[in-house]
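Re: [help] complex structure
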Amino acid sequence: MKRLAPYLLILPGGLWLLIFLVVPMVFMASVSTQEGDIINGFVQTFDFSVYGDALTRYQTQFLRSVGYGLVGTVVSIAMAYPVAYWIAFRGGSRKSTYLLLVLLPFFVSFVLRTVSWKFLLADDGLLLSPLKSMGLVAQDFHVLQTTVAVIGGLVYNYLPFMILPIYVALERIDPRVVEAAQDLYAARSQAFTKVVLPLSLPGVFAGVLMTFVPMTADYVNAGILGGPSNTMIGNIIQTEYLVNTDYPTAAALSFTLMAVMLVGIFAYARALGTENVLEAAAR
Amino acid sequence: MSTPEITRPRVPRVRFGERLLRGYVWLVIAWLFLPIVVMIVFGFNDTASKSNVTWQGFTLRWWGRLGDYPELVGAVVNSLKVALLATLITTVIGTLMGLALGRYRFRGQGATNLALFAAIASPELVMGASLLSLFVSAGVDTGFWTVVVAHVLFSLSFVAITVRARVIGLDRSVEEAARDLGASTWITFWRVTFPMILPGVVSGALLAFALSIDDFVITQFTSGAMETFPLWIWGATRIGIPPQVNILGTLIFAVGVVIAVVNTVTARRRT
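Output below.
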């Protein structure tokens, strides 16, 4: 009984993960090599040419998504690091209040937040129409349906996932270590680059994981804030699955996306230690 | 420059940098709040039609007309039902997993950790797409229950990991004392272990609820004809978002704020 205890405890959750996480991946792989349509049904053909076809057809969107994900992640690091740094080292007794302030906006639904941005950035919206009436920007100037709007939306929506892990890493740094560096005649900038920055890197790594993957696979921001030239791979997969019901193409695209992401993630997690990244991710 | 004694001439410059950093942080916070403030304010907009885009003056009338769109009300109710049920299931099975992972060493532990990690790290889009592939292949009609299944899946890891962290931090000698005093395993668990891991269970459950009520991507793939609050908004973006959505968003936001503030205040009192 004692030896069985962990297995009994793990059983319901483990089965859930097996049936609804692992098995569906197998089904998705299977669907990607089927042929047919929604009316006449699909037949398993093990025809892998769908991968080549889908990737040639949508390589622009695929590369664009990875590009948006990379730019968004880099912008997020640049934006989040000073915020996390200030809260961790200058927050004093109010640290948790500042963190709460950073997190509060995310109690509003993801879609609603993005819709609110669309509304703010509209051509005759709250931000642009005063600027236009003052003549500060051209009348035909627009932000919506541009790359800037989509990447801005991505950064906005995933910024806390970058701030939190960096904050956690910075917060763990013993202030005495920084003092020691200064006692040993390190200039402020040196104490930062030689001591604080390296110690905070695990947080940055976790943050990259928590932002790059969902940004690359996102389709809400491109769908609401972007235009036809901002379509990301997520929009294609969503349309193929839910509108065109071209399951094989959609499955092939998502399978490729997953493979690219998972290989990256596991290489990344292995290099840094799964449990550390997991723990940082769960905070 | 490097001797710490000569700090005097450096003081103003450092202070300027500090002030700049402080100003920057508040700027970022303002940026984060901007769309939220707009959402709240436009719930009070005296707009004539469904398109709620320009400020027409203050009104409270939309608060009395929350039920104008029955599908919207139904969608909010669906969101709440899914979130409650998914949170309940996730909390139970996630807590059990957390206990097993924090307390025992067993075969398959590595694989379980890996699966929990994969459930957090894989993009929602891929999870949604693969679940839909499963349901389509198995001939399962998507709807309420498939959404619940999906929501349990993506919040399970968060509950399991928070509980595991709590279990690892437990002082085992307290349990040993209970057993030495004659308590059975069952009594020890409910009277000693469970109260000690409860904070972890509660924060895991809150997180699961927050994730579920906000979820869009996986829900869109697994919901079939059922609509939830985020799905209704997505559908309405093209035709215009009525002020009722702003108000419902504000209400959900207010509940979240109250819970978070209470949580922070009590956490501070504990330490």
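The domain at 70-241 of chain B is CATH 1.10.3720.10 (MetI-like fold).
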